[in-house]
Amino acid sequence: MATSFYIGLMSGTSLDGVDGVLANAESGGRLHVIAHAFTPFAAPFRSELLRLNESGPDELHRSALAGNAISRHYAHVVHQLLHTTGMSPEQVVAIGAHGQTVRHRPLAFDGDAATQQPAVGYTLQLINPALLAELTGIDVVADFRNRDLAAGGQGAPLVPAFHQGVFAQDSACVAVLNIGGISNLSVLGEDSSVRGWDCGPGNALMDFWCHTHTGQPFDRDGAWAAQGRIQPALLQTLLSEDFLQQTPPKSTGRDLFNPAWLQHTLAHHAKLAAPDIQATLTEFTALACTKDVLQHAAKARELVVCGGGALNGHLMARLASHLPHLQVVSSEARGLPPLQVEAAAFAWLAYKTMRRETSSLPSVTGARGARVLGAIYPR
User: Fold this and answer.
1) Fewer CB atoms inside 10 A, N or C side of the chain?
2) CATH of region 3-158+340-377
C-alpha cells in the first residue's frame, strides 16, 4: 500500500509548547505516527502569548512578531523530527501547522439583520506559514479554521473527523474527550455518525491558578488539587456559566475562560484556601465534561481521554467517579499517546488539504457544508 509522509504541529490553549509528529499516511488516509517531538515555550514567551489573548498596546506589532517566533519554534520541532527519523525535507509531502490561537469569536459582531447577512466573526491563530516553509524547505498547510467560518461554521473543533478514523469501533458508540487548555468532546456513533463540540474549560484555569500560587506551570498529576477540598458554593457558581448551558454546535477559548473571568467569579465568594480552589477548578472541568457525556453520549461504553488532561491522575479519577458506567481510558491504551493526538490530527488535515479532500464536518461545526480546509504555502 502506497504511503506518504506528513508532519503535524500543534500548540494549544495550554500554552506549554509545541508538539509535533511525523507520520505516514496510507492510501485512504489511515495515519501511523513514527516519531514525536516537543519543544517548550520559555516563560517570557508564554506570558506574551497570554497577554495577546486580550487587547493591549501595540498588539498588531506584537502579534506579528509572536507569529514569527511561533514559526521558529515549529521549525525547531520539524528539524528534531527529521533528525530522529533520518529523513530529508524532500521526503515529507507537507506540514500541517495549527498556529497559536489567541482569539476565537465565531459567528459574532459583523452580521447585518437589515440585509440578512449572517455574522461570520473571526478566529485568529498566530503563525507565519511562509517563514515556516522557508525555514524547513517543506510545503506548509495552515489557516485551517477560517474556511469553515466562511461557510457559517464555528471553525472548531476540527479533530472529531480524525478521532473517527482512529478511535471509532464497529457497531459501538465511543466518546473521545480531548482535555487541553479547553476541553472538547467527540461522539462517534455506532451508525458512523460524528458529533463534536467544546465542553468548557480544560487545563487553562487549573494551570493559571497553580502557576499563580505555586510557581509551577501545571498541577502535576493533580497532586495539589487532591490536597484541597471541593467548595460546593463556588462549584455551583462555576457550573452556572451560560456557555455550559448552550447546545452544540459551540466552541470557546480563553476569550471566555481566562484569569479575569475566574477572578470575577471568585469575587462573589468568601476568601478560600488556594488548594481548595484548585480542587474545585478540577471538579469544574470534570463535571463540565461529564455533563456533556451523559447528555449526548448516553450509549457510549467507553470514554477515551487525550490531551494533557489525560496525564492528570486526579482529574481522570474524578471523571471515572462521575461516569461509573463507562470505561475511562487514556488514548495511549487505544494506540495513540495523549500528547500526540492533536498534532497527528493536523498531519491528517494537511493530507486531506493536499489531496483537495474535504475534512470539516457540518455535524460538528454547524457549517453549511463540508469544505476543503487550509491554505498551502509552497516551499
Assistant:
1) N
2) 3.30.420.40
